[in-house]
Amino acid sequence: MNKNKILLVVMVVLATNILTFFTARAIGTEAQAPVEEVGEEAVLEDLTEDFQLFQEIVGILEAEHLQEIDRNKLLHGAFEGMLETLDDPEASYLDREDYENLRVQTEGVYGGIGIEVFLDDEYVTIVSPISGTPGEEAGLSSGDRIVSVDGINLVGEDLNKAVSLMRGEPGTDVEMEVERLGVDEALKFEITREEIELETVEHEMLDDRLGLIRLSNFSDTTAQEFEAAIEDLKQQDMEALIIDLRNNPGGLLDAAVQIANILVPEGPITHLEGRDSRLETKTSGSEGLGIPMAALVNEASSSASEVLAGALQDTDSATIIGTRTFGKASVQNIRPLSDGGALRYTVAQYQTPDGRTIHEEGLEPDLEVKPSPVVELAMEPISTGLVEGDEGEEVETLQKLLAEFGYFDEDVSGNFDQATREALEQFQEEQGLHVTGEMGEMVVRKFHEEIETLREEDDRKLDRAVELLEDQF
Predict the structure, then answer these.
(1) Is 328 a catalytic residue?
(2) Is the CA virtual torsion 130, 167, 226, 12 positive or negative?
(3) Taking CA 379 as the corner, what is the angle to CA 118 and CA 314, rounded to the nearest 5 degrees?
(4) Annotated catalytic residue: which of 98, 120, 314, 390?
């Protein structure tokens, strides 16, 4: 069984901005004071002999090792090995591309064409164009396989290369060649890049009094988007509010604090405990929103979303509904490096307003509401490399999902047999995918879409929040 890629069905790798679990976690935005020059010089002097030894080792390997040495890989391995000794799972070296992707995610704006992509086998494949962007207007479609960008072949290349080629200054053009299922010849597009804003906030009125705001993550623009959503809902006579933090992996700490400042009354929002137990408290200076509120959370609500949920819970500003959160209460800093990359490292742990530490424990909701069976099933890992003849728990998950969607009516055995392959082929055909009878990334994404549809039809947490708030009118 190919286990190179194990995914959670509910986790979707989004795209041109490469939203990943790693780049979306809470990032400290405190002032990044440079190391004092005198201290830095002393450190460099102390490391001179070590640098010489490092250079000696690299030189020997490049000259004499049986295999040809890739110096960049060697250096990156040295950086990562050094950081692994810190006992800090969040510490990492970000190369130039990774740092740029992180900046896009946290700043919420980039120059590009506005599509979400992932790597499916050897093809950079479009998940979907973002609404209102040049990619959508040009006619790019979900499932399109990108063959080349500006004449550069991308088949077999990594995702970062494709993303870098598609990004660029707004107003510049990019030429793309794509393959589309059912079309014999490759399609060619010339698209003018624009400034793309990644929206992190969605809002709507559920009825004539109850508003809903969904937060996907926390970027530089999130607090401003949130404030605009609040004002719009107020204009529609909102009397109570539900805040959906489910599957929100975090982001910028300051964005969560700014939103908490809108929602909770004057007092602590979170406490940051740094080196030597130094404590800094982020506080609200407002009167709070002053209406009944509920917040929805689950096991994928992490980091900055837990900061916000903790503030709402400890100040009795909202009822927290759902399941225990992820439990990531550490804050990272980002320091740009001379090579265009950056160093990420932990600078603090946060506490809730009441001083609770939730790291590796998570927040316990006020009202525990478990999701529907299909959503719980979607939290189980599944491999993208499953083929006929495989067996095990991941095949069981596949069979259960196919059964939930109405494609598989045999016994769930955990054996990828002919009936499983035929059910998967039927699913692929009806979803407009390449019919292979094998698990691919596009299948996972289609599973996700089907799960979202079923969740919307049977959203027990949202229903409980609506019921709770309606009782308070």
Answers:
(1) yes
(2) positive
(3) 105
(4) 314
Contact 318, 243 (CB under 8 A): yes
- Strand, coil or helix: 454: helix
Confidence check: pLDDT of 157 > 60 = yes
**Could you tell me which of 335, 308, 327 has the C-alpha nearest to residue 29?**
335
pTM: 0.82
Q: Does residue 188 carry a catalytic annotation? A: no
CB 429 within 8 A of CB 446: no
Over 267-319, what HEC string results? EEEEEEECHHHCEEEEEEEEECCCCCEEEEECCCCCCHHHHHHHHHHHCCCCE
CATH fold of 109-197: Pdz3 Domain (2.30.42)
The three-class DSSP label of residue 441 is helix
253-263 helix and 222-235 helix, angle to the nearest 10 degrees: 20
Domain boundaries for CATH 3.90.226.10 within the chain: 201-331+346-371
* CATH of the domain spanning 373-457: 1.10.101.10
DSSP string, 124-159: EEEEEEPTTSHHHHHT--TTPEEEEETTEE-TT--H
Tell me how far apart the alpha carbons of residues 25 and 90 are, in angstroms, rounded to a whole number.
9
Average pLDDT estimate for 450-462 = 87
Among 219, 284, 301, 303, the active-site one is 303
Distance CA 150, CA 166 (A): 9
Task: Quick: pLDDT tens for 306-328.
Answer: 999 999 999 999 999 999 999 99
- The strand ranges marked E within 23-182 are 92-94, 109-112, 115-120, 123-129, 145-149, 152-153, 173-179
Q: Residue 148 pairs with which residues in a beta bridge?
A: 153, 177
Residue ranges of the chain assigned to CATH 2.30.42.10: 109-197
Buried b (16+ CB within 10 A) or exposed e, 149-187: beeeebeebebbebbebbbbeeeeebebbbbbeeeeeee
Nearest partner of 357 among 298, 273, 282, judged by Cα? 273
Helix (H, G, I), strand (E, B) or coil at 69: coil
CATH 1.10.101.10 boundaries in the chain: 373-457
Q: Which one of 282, 328, 400, 446 is the catalytic residue?
A: 328
Dist CA 138 CA 10 (whole Å): 29
Q: For residue 241, which amino acid is it?
A: L
Average pLDDT over residues 439-446: 85
Q: What is the CATH topology of the domain spanning 201-331+346-371?
A: 2-enoyl-CoA Hydratase; Chain A, domain 1 (3.90.226)
